[in-house]
Amino acid sequence: xxxxxHGNHKGxxxxxxxxxxTQVSTRPRCAxxxxxxxxxxxxxxxxxxxxxxxRKDGRSPPSFEAIERDDxxxxxxxxxxxxxxxxxxxxASTGLRNTEACNQILLELANLSLESIKNGNxxxxxxxxxxxxxxDPQGGADTMLCAQMVAVHTASMACMDRAMxxxxxxxxxxxxxxxxxxxxxxxxxxIEAREKMKRGGSQTVNVRHVHVHDGGQAMVGNVx
Length: 224
Fold this sequence. Notes:
Elements: E1 2-3, E2 14-16, E3 21-23, H1 34-42, H2 44-56, E4 64-68, E5 74-78, H3 83-94, H4 99-111, H5 114-118, H6 123-135, H7 141-163, H8 170-199
Antiparallel strand pairs: 1-5, 2-3, 4-5
């Protein structure tokens, strides 16, 4: 999935006899096999049914594991015993149908934890995946927006963490709190944008009190 030296993916594939798992050190397994990608695209209804079954079962989202590449650098791979299940869990968590798009979203989420991954720590990367899964994206623009929400939330919490450190200077605390305030404002707008997408752009106005004065008339129902 990820190369610590460059922060991106290439095309190398390693197998581990100790774990019995095929480890893709530079790309998510859901996008590694071109034939499997074609199968997903040629049978969209069958794939959609399987993804729905994974969601209905309430299975945990996919997770990353740290691996060591041939050159000794740290890498990242999706963990699991079944490549097919990894594919379905990845598509189910992202809400996407296209495996290349799924690959891109997973890579972007992993890059949020770049420094931790270099040290072999994948916890924050898995937390980002879990947050995306919890938002339950529905694909397309909604998935991209949810991924951005995870990124903004992660950045705002990092700013707050730096601001609250006991050895932080007054200027550093002030600067980090200002950045956190801007990011939380962006996050609130992202929530509003997502709610608007769910409504399809429509807006509902609830009228709770109507006052009818002398000579006026009150109408109930749709007014053209």
